[in-house]
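S., here's the first fold you wanted:
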Amino acid sequence: MIFAFSYIGFTRDFSFEEYVKDSRECPILPEEDARALKDSELGKNIEHLFVARQLYLTPNLKIGDVAKATGICRTYISNYINQTKGMSFSDYTNSLRVEYAKTLLTRNMENKKIVSIASREGFSSEQSFYRNFHKFTGMKPLEWVKQQD
């Protein structure tokens, strides 16, 4: 158990100081305020950053990076994604990456090199790309491509 906590702590870019700062900046929202977050300017800023600016293509993207880019605290970003998308931050990011990969795979034969696509989309490894592609499509990338032809 100690190893698990140590590993998680080592791999996360999160400290107690950041937690304290985040909790001061982001008070816990009442239920009705949390629902209102979906339709707020904060939500529009998050959507714009992810979709229009394609932030999801950034390798090793963390929720803290989005918080810094938008000026919105991590708690609100997490709540917004959980409520509107029905998934975690990392799942949402990876789902957008997979959708982008699908567009690259359908464009032309040059873009069908899986290794180059995996690195272009921000996945940390080819294995991560394959795992997430299968998670969101139910198929391997080459199977998906053959189905599209």
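And the second, which I think is the more interesting of the pair:
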Amino acid sequence: MNHSQHSKLSSLSHPRRTATAVAVALALTGLATATAPSSAAAPAAALAAPDIPVANVKAHLTQLQSIATANGGNRAHGRPGYKASIDYLKAKLDAAGFTTSVTTFTSSGATGYNLIADWPGGDPNQILMAGAHLDSVSSGPGINDNGSGSAAVLETALAVSRAQLKPTKHLRFGWWGAEELGLVGSKAYVNSLPTTERSKFTGYLNFDMIGSPNPGYFVYDDDPAIEKTFKDYYAGIGVPTEIETEGDGRSDHANFKNVGIPVGGLFTGASRTKTSAQVQKWGGTAGTAFDRCYHSSCDTTANINDTALDRNSDAIAHAIWTLGNEPTVPPGDVHENTTDVAVPDNGAAVTSSVTVSGRTGNAPATLKVGVDIKHTWRGDLVVDLLAPDGTAYRLKSSSSSDSADNVIATYTVDASSEAANGIWKLRVQDIAAQDTGYIDSWKLTF
């Protein structure tokens, strides 16, 4: 995990502020005889997903440790240990029947590599992706940060192959380079995607540090459906969770989120210290970092909590099986306004309109409102959807602590009490001084 990314970007941008299941069952029968069972019981809601054997995940970590040891003690961008890590994963995925590609980028004068693996089949217009950064810092082998996420995503992909899963969505897996230098690899990948391709993503799941030795169980609070999927899993095994705040915006999901792709993920903590209240929930040691070897030479295979790694690996599989097998959504009736509307600084609310006609009855209970607002401090903004009769539906409230740029999101509104036809408006108001922006575009999808 890139520890300084969020604060660095904020200070640069805001210098004035301090701020199908049958096949699964057959595959599991063979799997149980070949590997030791995982210690974490799966909840009833996740029975279709396989139990990911923690021994398999740890075996990948042992290989990554050996690669680091043989290559100067690390697997950092531009170093031979990183490319050897890519080669190890690619060989496993190729043998399992994935279509793999290695893409390149340049950072700090060195060639970087991303590894992409596609599972054949599924709706190509509905892509579910899971990913993790594969690089370490130069000071150590990076087994928790982020061998843990990389290995768990790899083993989940291999479980898809063992099950010969036939998901409704197209499954894609990715491993990113140069995350530790500022999320460089994933940014290069996202930037390479045409807008039409980005629109096909139903979600990107990120896993960065999921085996911390003094672990917490943190869930990203980004896309509500993805967040609920992980929370439901953990509720099913009786493990409380907290919202992830330490690494928010500092890992690869930020690049996907910035272009409007729904994101979510898991995290077990880095340099912050575990509180007494968290020890009451999760065990461990109060007053000690979740990972005392964060970005250090001691981030080795000894720096892993097996229970956390096991639970999170199973949670990843649960999410892939659950979200990957949701019914695909046919293209909707889209009404869009792409005319820019300036949002005055600390001023009156402005609106942008779309006219809906030719429909019968009321709007749906799952009306999708896609919003793209460019602004240098999105916490200043209050955003509402106005129905044709003037009824306001709050999409986003203001927040003094929300320091990031832009509002690029899709909201779901229960508009079933509203007539579908008429003039719908997006209303935006900037309620604080010093930052400016504009409505770039917005759309309704029925």
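Why I say that: The CA atoms of residues 345 and 351 lie 15 Å apart. The mean pLDDT is 89.

Talk tomorrow,
H.
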